[in-house]
Amino acid sequence: LPPGSMHRIVTVDAQPSVVGSGALLVFVTGEYVGQQFSEVFQLVNSGSYYIHNDIFRVGNTNAFNVPEAAKDVAKQFIEFYYSTYSSNRAALLNIYRPNSCYSFEQTQLQGAQDIANKLPQLPGFRRDACGIMAKPW
User: What string of H, E and C letters represents the secondary structure of 68-123?
Assistant: First the structure.
């Protein structure tokens, strides 16, 4: 954020990351200069925490903000995940691992089986015309 800019943190979610011992994934949402923002940090502990990865987004004017090198993988993953989530959530078990973490509201889960057991209890999604974005119904 530029120095002196007005921002307000609205939500913060965090969960362990498997990148390293004590690593965390932190997701922040808020308001920045009258627009919504979201930011994801991957923090790695090397005696003190440092930011390993950081994704920051203000507004939603660029709905698919992915570097060219990752575009095909990102599109294929999003298409697979949300179409499978809509049609057969049990099949998502195969893309989670024993050390995978999943957060939904106040629920923190770890492990493929625990996550797969929770997915059928979550709200459904309806995909829009472009087939990439997902919206709750």
Answer: HHHHHHHHHHHHHHHHHHHHCHHHHHHHCCCCCEEEECCEEEECHHHHHHHHHHCC
Q: How far apart are the first and last CA of the chain?
A: 33
- pLDDT < 50: residue spans in the chain: 129, 131-137
Give the residue among 134, 135, 136, 109 at the shortest CA–CA distance from 123: 136
C-alpha to C-alpha distances, 74 to 21, 44, 62, 64, 116, nearest whole angstrom? 27, 23, 15, 9, 22
Which amino acid type is present at position 128? D
- Record the tokens describing residue 18, joined without a space: 């498997």
Are 55 and 40 in contact by the 8 Å Cβ rule? The answer is yes
pLDDT at res. 136: 38
Closest by alpha carbon to 28, among 58, 69, 73, 72?
Answer: 58
pLDDT at 62: 64
- What is the structure's pLDDT at 20? 66
pTM of the model: 0.69
